[in-house]
Amino acid sequence: MEKKEYLDLYNQMVVIRILEENAAELYQKGKIGGFLHLYIGQEAVSTGLISARKPQDRVITAYRDHGVAINSGLSANVVMAELLGKATGCSGGKGGSMHMADVNKNFWGGHAIVGAHLPLAAGLALGDLYQKKDGVTICMFGDGATNIGYFHEALNLSKVWNLPVLWVCENNQYGMGTAVERASAVSEIRQKAAGYDIPSDFVDGMNVIKVRDISKKLIAEIRAGGGPRFLEIMTYRFRGHSMGDPERYREQDEVHKWQENDPIGIYRKYLTEEKIAKESELDEIDAQAAEVVAEAVRFAESSPEPAPEELFAHIYAEEN
Amino acid sequence: MEKKEYLDLYNQMVVIRILEENAAELYQKGKIGGFLHLYIGQEAVSTGLISARKPQDRVITAYRDHGVAINSGLSANVVMAELLGKATGCSGGKGGSMHMADVNKNFWGGHAIVGAHLPLAAGLALGDLYQKKDGVTICMFGDGATNIGYFHEALNLSKVWNLPVLWVCENNQYGMGTAVERASAVSEIRQKAAGYDIPSDFVDGMNVIKVRDISKKLIAEIRAGGGPRFLEIMTYRFRGHSMGDPERYREQDEVHKWQENDPIGIYRKYLTEEKIAKESELDEIDAQAAEVVAEAVRFAESSPEPAPEELFAHIYAEEN
Amino acid sequence: MAKITMRQAISQALWEEMERDERVFIMGEEVGVWGGTYAVTKGFYDHFGEKRVRDTPIAEAVIIGAAIGAALTGLRPVAELMTINFAFSAMEHIVNEAPKLHYMFNGQMTVPMVIRTVSGGGRQLGATHSQTPDAIFAHFPGLKVVAPGTPADAKGLLKAAIRSNDPIMFIEHATLYQTRGEVPEGDYIVPIGTSKVQREGKDVTIVTYSKMLELSFLAADQLAKDGIEAEIVDLRSLRPLDMGPVIDSVKKTNRVVVAEEGWKSYGVGAEVSSRIYEEAFDYIDAPVKRVAQKEVPLPYNAQLEQLALPQVEDIIAAVKEVF
Amino acid sequence: MAKITMRQAISQALWEEMERDERVFIMGEEVGVWGGTYAVTKGFYDHFGEKRVRDTPIAEAVIIGAAIGAALTGLRPVAELMTINFAFSAMEHIVNEAPKLHYMFNGQMTVPMVIRTVSGGGRQLGATHSQTPDAIFAHFPGLKVVAPGTPADAKGLLKAAIRSNDPIMFIEHATLYQTRGEVPEGDYIVPIGTSKVQREGKDVTIVTYSKMLELSFLAADQLAKDGIEAEIVDLRSLRPLDMGPVIDSVKKTNRVVVAEEGWKSYGVGAEVSSRIYEEAFDYIDAPVKRVAQKEVPLPYNAQLEQLALPQVEDIIAAVKEVF
Ligand SMILES: Cc1ncc(C[n+]2csc(CCOP(=O)(O)OP(=O)(O)O)c2C)c(N)n1
Ligand SMILES: Cc1ncc(C[n+]2csc(CCOP(=O)(O)OP(=O)(O)O)c2C)c(N)n1
Ligand SMILES: [Mg+2]
Ligand SMILES: [Mg+2]
C-alpha cells in the first residue's frame, strides 16, 4: 500500500472523529434535531471496510451512518449540512442524521428501521447479478439487527440466489442498552451465518488495516462469483447509543477500557512504529481535518433552509 | 409399551388416512370449501410425536392440521363437522380446514399464515414457564416455514429465554411446488438450529415408533429445564399441496417411490413381524376406523349450519 | 376486440411488458414452476427462464425488500404477493420503505416496482385469508394503489404500472379472474389515477371499484327494471384518488352510494364520501350510503361468509334508501 | 387531585396493575434495564424483576406474537412497541393474529393483551420514524384501538385495557409525555369505547383525539377571543368508535371540524365525517372540515416538518370556514 493510502485512511478516521464531536456540540446547541447516533470508537470499521471496495461496489448501512458517508466519499460539508437539515445536505435536508445517501458515490443510505435494509441490500446485489455487472454490495448492520426476521430472510435469499453481497455485522456489544448475550441466542454473531451455509470470518474492528485486509479478501471472493460472505467486526461505541442515552446498562470502567483501544490511537502508533509516517505529519493531518470540519460547520450554518415548496417535491418520481 | 398403545397408534394413523380420503371426496362434491390440505403420507409424524406428550403439553401447528387434531384427541366427528363448516365443528364452523382447535385437549390450532404461529408457540411456552407449570409446547411447521422471519425471531427468543418448546419441522421436501433446496440455503433444515445454539435431532417420519421415541426423549429434556429443542422429521406428502394442485413440480415416479414407504404399511409390517398384533386384529381396526369415519361423515352432514346470529358472536370477549 | 378473461388480460400485460423490456422481471412464491397460484404466470417460466421468472422462498419481507433494492438499480421488478393477507408480513417494506426512499433521499433514489397481489373474500378461506384491506395501503403517500374491475382496465393499468417509476400496489381480486370483457390488443395503456364512468345513468351514482364493480352492474340492471338509472363510477385507483368523474356524476344525480368489499370503518367509502361532501356539499339530496363488509373477521362457513360480504341486494337497498 | 404528567399517569397505571395482578407483565425493547425509551417504565425492572419486566431482542413480530401466546395461557401481557413505526414489523400479529383468534376458534381462545406504542411526528425523526398511522389499525374488527389525550384518560384507559380480555392497541403520543393534568389517585377506570366532551361550547364542534386535543384546546381559546365557543369532543378510542357524544354535539352546533395528526386520506377524519353525515345529515350547516397532515412523508428539516403537520392555526382557519 502506498504511503498516501495509509495517510488517507488516517485522515478519514480523524475527520469522522472530529465531525462527530462537532455534531454532538451542535446537537447540544439545538442546531441538530431528531436522533443523533455517533460513530466515535467505530471509525476503523467503515474506514477499513469501505477502503477495500471498488467504485462499482455499493454500500448500504443503518442509521449510524455519518462515518460511512465520509468513507464513501461524501464531503464533510454535505454531511454536516444534512445534519443541520439544510438544502445543501446530501439528502436536501429531508433525511437528516439517519437518512444520508449519495447514489453517485454508490452510497445507498442511511436506513433507520433496524434490519429492514438487509432485504434492500439483497435486491441491490440482485440488480448487479441480473445486469451482469461485477459490483459487490456491502451491507453493514449492528449486532442487534441480527435478531429480526429481515436478517434471516435476506441472508437465506442471498445464499439461495448466490448474490454478490458482503454481510457485515458491526458487533459493538450492545443494541441500545441490551448486551448481545441478552438478545441473541449466540454471542458470536458469525455463528448465525452457518445456518445459511454462508462462509464467515471475523476481525478486530479497532485495527483499520486488519479490517481492510479481510474485507479485500472477502470482496474478491464474492466478485469471483463465490456468493455471499459474512464478516463480523468486533468494535465498541465510546458514546451512548444516541444523544441523551442514560447509559444505565454499562459500567464506565468498561467504556474506559475500550477507550484505551482507540482505533485512531492504535493506527497512529502503528504508522509511527512502522515508520510509515512521522508524528509531525500526523499532527498536520489532524490540523487539516479540524479545519475541514470547521469549514463544514461554517458551510452548513451558512447554507439555506430548503424552500417551502420542497415539502411537496419528490413524493413521486412522476405525477400522474 | 402396552399392546393397546401400539394398536392405538395404528388406529390413529388409519383413522387419519380414511378421514382424509373421505375429505377429498367431500371436497370434490363441493361439500367442503376453501383450501383443503391433506395429511396423507405424513400420518406417522404427528401420531408418533403427539403420542409422546403428556396432557399438560400444548400442541400447535399450521393449516395441515386434521391429523394433528385427531392425534390431539379430537373426535373424527368434530373434525369432519368443521370441514363441512357445521355448528358442531371444533371451531363452530367458523374456522374450517385450516383453523381447527380444541384448547381443552391442549390443541391450540390450526394456523394458516406460514410461520406466524411460531411466535405464538414461544408465547405459549412463556406462559407455562412464567406460571411455573411443567408443560412443554410442541410446535409443528413445514420446511417452507423455516425461511420466513417469524421462524428466526421465535427460535432466537426461545433460546434467549430458555423456553420449554419443542420445535418440530415436518420436512416433506416441498413448500407448495418449491423443493427445499430451491428455497432454503440449507437442505438439512436442522442445520438452522445451530444458528440459535438449539440442540437438534432428526428422524425418519415414516416410522411412527422412531418418531415417538425421539420425541419422548426431547420432551423429557425440555421438561427437565433444558430449554428448547429442534426436531426435523423427514416425510413426504402423497397428495398435492392442497386440492387442485397441478403438481408440475415433481415426477410421479418420485411420488410412487415414496408411496412404497407408506407409514401405515411400514407400521403394519412391524406390528405383525414383531408379533405384536395379528393381521386379523389390524384388519379389524381398519374396519372400525372406516366405520368411525363413516359415522363422522353422517354426523357432519346431519349437523346444523351455524345460526345466522353466530356471525356476530365472539368478535370480542367483552362488548364495551 | 377479443373478449378474454381478467386472468388472460393480466397475463397478457405481463407477457408483453417482459417481451418489451429486459429490465422487467417477476419474483414471488410459486410464480415459476407452478405457474402462479392463480395461473396468471403459467408458461412464463418456460418462455422467459428462471432469471426473469424467479420463484422465492416463503419470505414476504425479502420478496418486497429485494424487489425495492433491484428497482433502485434500474430494474423494473414485478413482485407478487400470493394474496394481500400476506402483505402484512411485508408491511414495513410496502409502506415504510418503498414509498419513503424517493422523498427521504431527495429524489436520488427511485423505486419503479409493481407489487401484484390479490384481495377478496367469498372463497371460504377463513378470517386470516379472506381480507380486502385495500384502504390501509392507500393511506400512505409515496405509494400508489391500483385495483382494476374489468379485464381491459387490468391490462391497461398493469402496463402503466410496470412503466411507472413509482412503487405501485396492484390489487387484483380472487373472484374476478374468470370475468370476461373486451380487451384491446397490443400496447393498451390506462393512465394511473383516473376514475371512469363504467355505466351512464342520471338518477343515482354508485361509486365503486374492483369486485364490487361487477356487483354494481348487476344492481344497476335490477334498478333499471324499477326505472332507476344508476351511473357507475369505477375508482380504479385508490391513490391517487381521482374524484373528478365522481363529483361530475354526483352533481348530475345528487344521490350517492359507495360500494366496497372491505370493512366499512376506516375503509374506502369513508374517504370517498368525505371527499364528496367536501367537493359537492350543496348537491347531495340524501346522506351518502356506504355498502361494505360487516365488521367481523370473515368466517369459514359459506352461509355466514355470504352474510358478511356485501351483496347485490345490499347495493339495491342502499340505492333505494337515498331516494 | 394531583397534577401529574402523562408519563407519570401511564407509569402509575402500569405499576398499580402490576401490583394488583401477578399475571400482568411487561415485555419489549429497552423496557427493563434502560427503563423505557420514554422513561415510562423507569424503576420497574428493579422493583418487579426481570421475570415481569422483560427486555426483548429487536424482533417486533415475536414481541407481539409471544405476547399473544402468553395471553392465550391466561397471562395479561403488556407488550411495548417502541414506536408505532415499528408496528409495521409486527403487522401480521397485530391485525391478522390477535384480532382473529377469538372469533376464528369460536370463542375458545381469548387474547387479553395490551400493545403499548407511540405515535406522532414533530421531533425531526424523518419519514420512517414520524408517522401517525393510527387509522389503519382501527380498520380491523377484533382489535380495539385506544389513544388518550389527557393524563387522566391515559391512566383510566390503560387500566381498563389491561383488565380487558381483548387485544388492545394503546397508542400514546411522543410529544404528550410532559403534558400535565389532574389524575385521580388509585383505581381509576375509564371504560374503553367512550368519547368525551373535553370542552363545552355552543358554536362549533371540534372532533379530535390524542395530541390534537392539546392543539384543539389552544385553538378553542383563540376562537373564544373572537366570540366563537368551540365544543371539543375527544374520541379517546378509534375502535370501538363512540359517535354518541359527537352526534349530540353536532346537533347542537351544526358545524364540525375533525382534527387528526395523521394523513387525511383514509384517515380518522374520513370515518368520523362520514358517520356524522350518516347520523346527523339534516343538522350539518356547512361541509365538515378535516384538519390533518399534508400528504407527504414527513421530512427531517424542522421548518418543512412543521409545514406538514397540522397546526393550531389550521384548526382555527377550518373552524372559520365552517361559518
Ligand atoms: C424495527 C425497529 N425496531 C426498533 C428500533 C429502535 N432502535 C433503533 S437503533 C436500535 C438498536 C440497534 O442496535 P444495533 O443493531 O446493535 O446497532 P447499533 O446501534 O449498536 O449500531 C433500536 C432498538 C428501530 N429503529 N427499528
Ligand atoms: C406468510 C404466508 N405466505 C404464503 C402463504 C401461502 N402458502 C400456504 S402453504 C404454503 C407452503 C408451505 O410449505 P411448508 O411450510 O413446507 O408446509 P407444507 O405445506 O409442506 O406442509 C404457502 C406458500 C401463507 N399461507 N402464508
Ligand atoms: Mg450494536
Ligand atoms: Mg413442506
Brief write-up:
The complex is a heterotetramer, with two copies of chain A (320 residues) and two copies of chain C (323 residues). Chain A has 320 residues and is an alpha/beta fold.
List the keywords.
heterotetramer, A: 320 residues, alpha/beta, six-stranded parallel beta sheet, 12 helices, 11% strand, C: 323 residues, 14 strands, globular, binds thiamine diphosphate, binds magnesium ion
Largest sheet strand order of chain C: 3-2-4-5-7-6-12
What is the makeup of the main sheet of chain C?
Answer: 7 strands, mixed
Please outline the major beta sheet of chain A: 6 strands, parallel
Order of helices and strands of chain C: EHEHEHEHEHEHEEEEHEEHEHEHH
Distance between the termini of chain C: 38 Å
Mean pLDDT of chain C: 98
* Ends distance of chain A: 53 Å
SSE topology:
The complex is a heterotetramer, with two copies of chain A (320 residues) and two copies of chain C (323 residues).
Chain A: H1 3-28, H2 43-50, E1 58-61, H3 66-71, H4 76-83, E2 107-110, H5 117-130, E3 137-142, H6 149-160, E4 165-171, E5 174-175, E6 178-179, H7 180-183, H8 191-194, E7 200-204, H9 208-226, E8 229-234, H10 252-259, H11 263-273, H12 279-302
Parallel strand pairs in A: 1-2, 1-3, 3-4, 4-8, 7-8
Antiparallel strand pairs in A: 5-6
Helix pairs in contact in A: 1-2, 1-11, 1-12, 2-9, 4-12, 5-6
Chain C: E1 2-5, H1 6-20, E2 24-28, H2 44-48, E3 53-55, H3 60-72, E4 76-81, H4 91-104, E5 114-119, H5 134-137, E6 144-146, H6 151-163, E7 168-173, E8 180-183, E9 196-199, E10 204-208, H7 211-225, E11 230-234, E12 237-239, H8 244-253, E13 256-263, H9 268-280, E14 289-293, H10 302-308, H11 312-321
Parallel strand pairs in C: 2-3, 2-4, 4-5, 5-7, 6-7, 10-11, 10-13, 13-14
Antiparallel strand pairs in C: 1-8, 6-12, 9-11
Helix pairs in contact in C: 1-6, 3-4, 7-11
Bound molecules: thiamine diphosphate (2 copies) and magnesium ion (MG) (2 copies).
